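Researcher: Please translate sequence to structure tokens.
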Amino acid sequence: MSIVMTRLRNWFGEALEYTMGKPSDVKHQPPAIGIQPYRDKPEKVHY
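Model: Translation complete:
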């Protein structure tokens, strides 16, 4: 019975980690707040 509970705890931990994400492995950073420099170069279209 203890093996079943250990496996269940491990499974639940992995499922929770997959759902919530790992804080140490943050890939998606929120956007910076405030004025951002303009980096795009607009292309001039002549008709």
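Researcher: Any highlights?
Model: The CA atoms of residues 13 and 19 lie 10 Å apart.
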